[in-house]
Amino acid sequence: MADRPYTLLSCSVSLDGYLDSATDERLLLSNDADFDRVDAVRASCDAILVGAATVRNDNPRLLVRAGGRRSERVARGLPPSPIKVTVTCSTNLDTYANFFATGDSQKLVYCASETVRKARDRLGSAATVVDGGQPVSMERMSEDLYARGVKRLMVEGGGMVHTQFLTADLADELHLVVAPIFVGDSRAPRFVGDGRFPWNPDRRATLAEVCPIGDVVLLRYALSPRFRMD
């Protein structure tokens, strides 16, 4: 395939594999020390990608929080925070969401070919709308991001996006943080959905690092030959 960014998937899950609860209130699975680790990873990337459902439900800012890290990026000629990227099927996005309303970095929205005009009318100057194919192809999106100068991509969810990147074998690295709680509700969103994954009993992912961070643990997996231990 054509060149694509080095792609790192990052998420936190409960002991029973859920990303969140089934309620409207967001479940915080991590802790302050791990949030700071994630902030450092964000600062090392050229772009951060989340699905449109995450934009709607979690309303993330997707910004580098630490002032020192923002300053280091600016000193290297980069914006204070990475490019923000989302992908949508419905184009149901609100320009008042933090994704669009915060930060000075570029915002990219990938959507299906048949909804490009609708998305551009809806979002106006809030973001650059990109034709992602019909339906949206993660491979096509990755190649387009690389052509735009994105060499290192961080994917922060949600479950559908993680599933698409993993089943398409487009991930180089996985950061999976496990929190010491159970959700116990099958209505809650899981880390991934159903699919044919490249990692199976005949091709096991490589565990590269195990790191306790307070009461959570980081499991770092190498998912491709491009993996590098920074």
Attribute tags:
single chain, 9 strands, Dihydrofolate Reductase, subunit A, 230 residues, nine-stranded mixed β-sheet, alpha/beta
Task: Explain how this protein is built.
The protein has 230 residues and is an alpha/beta fold. The chain has one domain (6-222): Dihydrofolate Reductase, subunit A. It has seven helices and nine strands, in the order βαβααβαβαβαβαβββ. The longest helix is centred in the first third of the chain and has 12 residues, at 32-43. 37% of the residues are buried. The mean pLDDT is 95.
Helix % is 25-40%
Derived structural class: alpha/beta
Strand content: 15-25%
Number of helical segments? 7
Distance between the termini: 25 Å
**Average pLDDT taken over every residue:** 95
CATH class: Alpha Beta
Into how many domains do the coordinates divide? 1
Given as residue ranges, the uncertain stretches (5+ residues, pLDDT < 50) are none
Count all strands and give the number.
Answer: 9
The oligomeric state is single chain
Major sheet: arrangement of strands: 5-4-3-2-6-1-7-9-8
Shape: globular
The Cα radius of gyration reads: 17 Å
CATH homologous superfamily identity: Dihydrofolate Reductase, subunit A
Q: Main sheet, how many strands, which sense, barrel?
A: 9 strands, mixed
Order of SSEs:
EHEHHEHEHEHEHEEE
The CATH architecture designation is 3-Layer(aba) Sandwich
CATH topology (level 3) name: Dihydrofolate Reductase, subunit A
